[in-house]
């Protein structure tokens, strides 16, 4: 099994809903993102996938989140860390295929 990882980070604000406490107030984080790709075989050139391409795809998606209000970006989802991870997974999966 081969694995490729890209790390990134971004700053964004959000307000959680219906959980109570101070996290329902507007606040921000610097989010850390790690994207892992796995595969059984390497391409002809000896790579799992072009690292530059993966890094570029991740950057384009992260740039759409950086310094934004996640409640608007996640379109109706409660902007929890878990929902943000699912959102990124789904968006990146569409682009990396």
TrEMBL record:
Is Iron included in the keywords of this UniProt record?
no
Cofactor(s) it depends on: Zn(2+)
State the Gene Ontology terms under molecular function. Answer: lyase activity; metal ion binding
Can the keyword Glycoprotein be found in this entry's annotation?
A: no
Q: Which InterPro entries match?
A: 6-PTP_synth/QueD (IPR007115), 6-PTP_synth/QueD_sf (IPR038418)
Q: Which UniProt keywords apply?
A: Lyase, Metal-binding, Zinc
Q: Which Gene3D superfamilies match?
A: 6-pyruvoyl tetrahydropterin synthase/QueD
Q: Which NCBIfam families match?
A: queuosine_QueD
Q: What is this protein called?
A: 6-pyruvoyl tetrahydrobiopterin synthase
């Amino acid at each position: 099994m081969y694995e490729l990882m890209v790390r990134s980070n971004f700053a964004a604000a959000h307000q959680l809903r219906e959980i109570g406490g101070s996290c329902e107030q507007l606040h921000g984080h610097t989010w850390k993102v790690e994207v892992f790709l796995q595969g059984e075989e390497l391409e002809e050139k000896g790579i799992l996938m072009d690292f530059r391409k993966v890094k570029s795809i991740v950057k384009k998606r992260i740039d759409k989140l950086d310094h934004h209000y996640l409640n608007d970006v996640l379109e109706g989802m409660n902007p929890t860390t878990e929902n943000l991870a699912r959102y990124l997974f789904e968006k990146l999966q569409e682009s990396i295929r």
